[in-house]
Amino acid sequence: MSRYQDLAEQTEKLITAGVFRAGDRLPSIRQACNTHDVSPVTVSQAYYLLESRGLIEARPKSGYFVRARLGQRLPEPEMSQPVGDSTQLEVSDFIFQILESVKDPSVVPLGSSFPSPYLFPLDKLGRFLASAARKLDPLATVTDLPPGNEELRRQLALRYLAQGANVSPQEIIVTSGALEGLNLCLQAVTRPGDLIAIESPTFYATLQASERLGLKVIEIPTHPRDGISLAALEEALRLHPIKACLFMLNFSNPSGGLVPDENKKALLDLLRRHQVPLIEDDVYAELYFGPQAPLCSKAEDSDGLVMHVSSFSKCLAPGYRLGWVAAGRYASRIQRQKLSTSLATTIPVQIALADYLKHGGYENHLRHLRRSLARQEAMLVEAVERHFPAGTRLARPQGGYFLWLELPRQVDALLLHRQALAHGISIAPGPIFSAKREFGHWLRLNFGHPDSPRQQAAIATLGQLVADQL
């Protein structure tokens, strides 16, 4: 743990214990430096982390103060415990039934998989797209076929370099969103009937893609704070012929877990020893609340086993359907798969996003987006604390835009889903995130939409519906 994280944890314990109470002013940065013998940067990073967690707030020209928190902080869920070994999937019909019911734009979108579109610079992106269409070189219809637009891949390689990862533009394949990238990666390293390792819980699209390709899955326990259990994964690799691992290491959907940097390194060492590739779904990596980004797995990928999949859908351009794979040793296979399936990703979109990365102020947009999501997370947590009954658990994510709630065991999340829809509220019930439809008393809530009286009323209604089942 770094110095700023250690200082943040110490301060959080003092707040939790009531030593610092709501409204109390924290020591100034200078005072904290003298007390803890650390630098001003360390104190600033610690206070920023506490602010992102909703524990403190900065007041102009006054310093940092403990935020008023309504109710006691809810306890954290424990490690998941998936039952059984490998599973032949039959989940798509069930998932589609659930998802079809949450498309109505009139409902409060707590069950949505997308953040608010108003968080993104869509007007500015539209201007870049219009410019790209006007100046489109006819030769681009050939030169920008897979692996994709050269300038876009160069810009992506520069972003990897800024994270300490030496990724060549030649190993980056542009895709039509991250989901296509995940499918291409799975097709490159598996055949029908093969076994892959996934998290428990996992994003439902992982289950759907695996089912469509005729794969079996083995679910690995995860913790909602620290992610995948390395011990359980090591045991699974020893006992089963696992062909690939498909994990979210940064702000997993639905749990929000973030695998610590040291655990990421250990995970990659483990997979290297077994020569099992990692397909990493990393669409939320830019949405961190702390002062620095999580470790990029490609920075530790010494032999090309990591297929790093991401997109701009969650951090910049929803609806543009532009993703990519940094494919390592599998680049040529994935490029061929792309050519033989969808041929190419929309070329003007590639050109527009390459221009935006160069000239559009992407980093400034990301800073605003992260601050907005951190504030919205704190508000949703406070609402849940205020309205949900005793026995509720949740983990505070360090990024992304999902809360993963464990409700009292008597609660039926599928029944809650139906009841909530009758009140104009969507939620994502836990069973859609499990190959065996586990997590029957869990739900995922989306804090990617600005707080509003309508959302506050929806949380109050949900809390009452939960209480009514007890």
Automatic annotation (TrEMBL):
The keyword Transferase applies. It comes from the Bacteria. Keywords: Aminotransferase, DNA-binding, Pyridoxal phosphate, Transcription, Transcription regulation, Transferase. Residues 1-69 form the HTH gntR-type domain. InterPro entries: Aminotransferase_I/II_large (IPR004839), HTH_trans_reg/aminotransferase (IPR051446), PyrdxlP-dep_Trfase (IPR015424), PyrdxlP-dep_Trfase_major (IPR015421), PyrdxlP-dep_Trfase_small (IPR015422), Tscrpt_reg_HTH_GntR (IPR000524), WH-like_DNA-bd_sf (IPR036388), WH_DNA-bd_sf (IPR036390). SUPFAM superfamilies: PLP-dependent transferases, Winged helix' DNA-binding domain. GO terms for molecular function: DNA binding; DNA-binding transcription factor activity; pyridoxal phosphate binding; transaminase activity. In the C-terminal section; belongs to the class-I pyridoxal-phosphate-dependent aminotransferase family. This is GntR family transcriptional regulator. It comes from Dechloromonas denitrificans.
